[in-house]
Amino acid sequence: MPSDGPAAVGPAKLVGARVKRVEDPRFLTGRGRYVGDLKLPRMAAMVVVRSLYAHARIRGIDAAAARRLPGVLAVFTGADLKERLRPLRADLDRVKNPSYKACDWYQVAWDKVRYVGDPVAIVIAEDPYTAEDAAALVEVDYEPLPALVDPEKAVAEKRVLVHEEWGDNVLCHTDFSTGDVDGAFGRAAAVVRERFRTNRHHALPLEPRGCVATFDPIDGQLTVWSSSQMPHMVRTKLAEALDRPENKIRVVAPDVGGGFGLKCHLFPEEVLTAFAATAVERPVKWLEDRRESFLASFHARDEIVEGELAVDRDGTILAARLRAIADIGAYSAFPWTSAFEVLHTAQMFPGPYRIRSYAFSATSVATNKSTLSTYRGVGAPVATLAMERLLDLAAGRLGIDPVDIRRRNLIRREEFPYTSVTGMPYEIGGYLECLEKAVEIAGYGELRREQAALRERGVCRGIGIGCYNEITALGSSYWHGIGVPMSAYEAANIKIDPSGHVTVYCGTHSHGQAHETVYAQIVSDELAIPFEKITVRLGDTNDTPYGWGTWGSRAAVTGGGAIIHCARKVAAKIRRLAGHYLEASADDIELVDGRAHVKGVPGRSIAIAEVAKRSIFTTAADLPANEEPGLDATHYYDPPPVTFPNATHIAVVDVDAATGFVRIVRYVVVEDCGRMINPMVVDGQITGGVAQGLGGAMFEHLVFDENGQPLTTSLMDYLVPTAADVPFVEIGHVETPSPLVPGGFKGAGEGGTIAPAAALANAIADALAPFGARVREMPFSPERVFRMTQPAHA
Q1: pLDDT tier at 10 (50, 70, 90 boundaries)?
Q2: pTM
Q3: CA–CA distance, 643 with 636 (Å, rounded to integer)
Q4: What residue ranges define each of the domains in the chain, with the CATH number in brackets?
């Protein structure tokens, strides 16, 4: 058979176009279908009883009063469930990660609680109000234990242990060194160092977590609807935890109101909801309220980082060092493990710069807080903050403009492909081009002149730059290489029905990324079938081939790659069948505007819809030799280890030194995410990411007291940016297609979030340069910024 290579189609029309999102009508008219919208006959409610202590032994639980309350169907404690549910366990290959320690995470604690919010019982009742009332009647006898809240103290602590079986509180520790680090620091013209403390924060999706499960005792079928980014993974792990056949479990992720990495895990509550449905043989719903979300959903970004750069007289980076500690909370999250945060920080610290000597020490430490795991960008925002602040400090020490020190050190186009100092393969990217275009859009020279004039009038204006690259669309070889027991291929199935309409099934899932639109754009171009005839189906494990969901800016690369390969298989079969029907060679068939044409023979063509119909309503005599009926193909695509988009952000701020208030005057982003499928969607991803990034930089902070009690458990305490706080984002693009990926795509989903902290920190430091301000702790709240202006701060 001929190759299923690139289809012979007319000129591409939709990839690269600003096509309106097909998802929007249902969202704008309030017709989205979320977990909370599900209403099933006889549906019961589940409420989780949560620990009031950060660290305590459970001496006993009295649930008798709760069980007696009218309307209560069942109450289960950890002792009831210990032998009925297999605990969660996030593990790593011990050969590749010899220091890593795993722990069993029971869905309901039975021996001791390890953070405020740790489940101690579940209540299933006729309605959520009765379940809440019953939960309040569950009495737990606690023996309080000292709580660990400071990760640096927890490293040294040997008497108070989050997990006694570890012998200490270190989840994982990694040291790395390559090149002549000590020698480079010894001969450097200047050495700059700083200690950074990033704020613990939360993904805070508009839709908190939620789950509905129903069980049919006749055929043993369990159906679970979950607000999840990874429905197939959830199905597999539910089967393990519940000890049920996986083919008897269906997981559906309906519309998801934001994920940002939070929802690409298996959570105890998903297992508990599914178990509850089997226990009471009724549909059961669990919806997380906002307070629960702060207590028990995973946290992010809580790191202490000490960074150093050694530079030559002209600003060339000679070597770098990093020491990073992450407060991972009480448990390790499945599937990535909570060690990924700080390891990603250490891995990405060199960023887009030419560095050949580098050493790091990365430590993940358990404390009595909610678990820390992946959130948009993972450790890259912390790495970028540290590197970009150190570059500005080096530029200041040497009297070099911040733009010029970056020009000198950014990897240039002619140096690609480039292997980073940590061994990462960088495909070609427009690193310097993004910087230069951002400088041009911002009018950098004029900004500096304005700044000087304003400073004479007492206005504290600052200009800050943040450059980065990021690893996206991590393939199976990346995860296997670091010892994470999962894969990262993606799968697509494409079917053309007898009417000529196309259905695309993919293992990724959309929670704001417009997959229903961008995937249809790809398929339309590959098959030359009108966009409006294409439907994309996602999120249902009964529909879609096994896939790994949406996270890590992977969908365009992995989902798009699988769809391109799959569409080319279908296109090749269309050409073969059309050639048969038109008595021409398949190689002479071209697909244009919904028809298969014989090249160079006007008038000889057949509608693709007719090919589809004839391929199904057919006889063996009407098919070419060795062909099967139908136009249907499946493809599994495993991408390269990583792709590397990159960007430059420039922030301009005014700081009121008397109050510490920071006003963002301008914000410029130039991003290179490879070939863009839909620039409108990319712009939306960038703008939303910037809003999230500046929220983390300026507002968001989860605060705990010395006993591990969270003090920020509502949106009155935990601040997020409003529309008034988010500036207009001026966006430019550099398109450097990836040579490694079908379509040339790179990831775009997380990029906007990675550089705001760095750009804003540099801008604030620049504005407060007359005060000698050290910008090193997030968030950059008015109180903290005001303290930077005080003499004691330095």
Answers
A1: low
A2: 0.96
A3: 18
A4: 24-32+489-637 (3.30.365.10), 303-417+429-475+641-793 (3.30.365.10)
